[in-house]
Amino acid sequence: MKSVQPVQEQPSATAMAPALSDQEFRQIRDWLHQHSGIHLSDVKKSMVVGRLQKRVKALAMPSFQAYLKFINLPTQRQEQQIALNLLTTNETYFFREEKHFNFLQQQVLPAFEQQRQPLRIWSAAASSGEEAYSIALLLAQQLGLAADWQVFGTDINTAVLEKARRALYPIEASQRIAMPLLQAFCLKGVGKEQGRFKMGPELCQHVQFLQANLFDLQAKLPLFDVIFLRNVLIYFELEDKKRIIQNVTRQLKPGGWLLVGHSESIHGYLDTLQQIRPSCYQYKKPVDRQLQE
Fold it and tell me: How far is 55 from 52, CA to CA, in rounded Å?
C-alpha cells in the first residue's frame, strides 16, 4: 500500500502579510499628512495595516517600507492616489445632520428666491455623493429644476467620486429621504438594478463632482453662496484646520454661509467668519483699511 503524504497547511493570509513596524507606521503617517493634511493618531496603526495590507500583497512587496518607497516615486502618481483612496475615511448618508438642511431651507433659500440670483453650493467633502444629492433634492423641491442653481461636490478620494457620479445607491439608503422627494426626483431600480435606486437625470444635471485636496486647494472652482464643510476638520490638527478654513473661505462670496459639523467649532479661526448659530458661520467681507483712511 502506498503511503499517503500529509497535506501541508497553507499559511494564512495574515501570516503571509508583512508586519508594519512602528517606524513604518510613522513614515506612512507622515506621507499621508504631507499629501492630504490628515493626521493619524497612534491608535490608527491597525487601520493602516487593514487598509494597505492587501495592496502590498497584490504588488508582491516584501514590506510596507518597500511600498512606501514605491509610492514616493514621481512616476507612481496612480499608485499614490490608490494609497490615498485606501487611507481616507468616508462616512456619510442622506440628510445627515438635518438641522443644516432646515437652516438652508428656512434662512438661506428665501433670500435667493426673492432676488432670483444664481445659487452655487459646495459640498467640500462629498465622499460618495449623499450630501451633495441631499442638497440638490432640497433645492429641486424648493426652487424647481428649471431654476439656476448648481451643486459642486469635491473629495480627495477618486474612488468615492466615481460612486457619486454614478448616483446609484442601495435601496436601504433611501429610508432617510422623504417620500415626496423620492417620488419626484429619484428612480427605482428594476431588473439587474433591483434593490437600488438612482438620482433622476434632470436632478443630476445640476450636480457635478471634481477631485480637490482641501489642504492644498488647486481645483478651479467658482465662488459659492453656501459651503458644506461638515465632519471633516476632526481629522486634522489645529494649524491644518485653520489652513483648510482659509482655503475654503476664499471660495465663499461675501455674505455667504459656511456650515461645519455639529461637533465642530471654528470660532476664532478667521475674523471674517461670524457665527450666527452653532456650526453656521457667515462670511463678512474684510474692510479695506486704505479706503477707511
Answer: 5
Task: Provide the residue ranges of all domains of the chain, joining segments of one domain with +.
Answer: 13-87, 98-290
| Gap between the Cα atoms of 223 and 92, Å rounded | 25
Known active-site residue 230: no
End-to-end CA gap in the chain: 107
**What fold is seen in the domain 98-290?**
Rossmann fold (3.40.50)
Bridge partners of 122?
A: 152, 227
Fold designation for 13-87: Chemotaxis Receptor Methyltransferase Cher; domain 1 (1.10.155)
The distance of Cα 201 from the centroid of its chain, to the nearest Å, equals: 22
Residue from 29, 96, 120, 155 carrying the catalytic annotation: 155
Chain segment 169-224, per-residue pLDDT in tens: 999 999 999 999 999 999 999 888 899 999 999 999 999 999 999 999 988 899 99
DSSP letters, 31-81, are: HHHHHH-----GGGHHHHHHHHHHHHHHTT-SSHHHHHHHHTSTT-HHHHH
Q: Is 51 a catalytic residue?
A: yes
Q: Tell me which DSSP letter residue 148 carries.
A: S
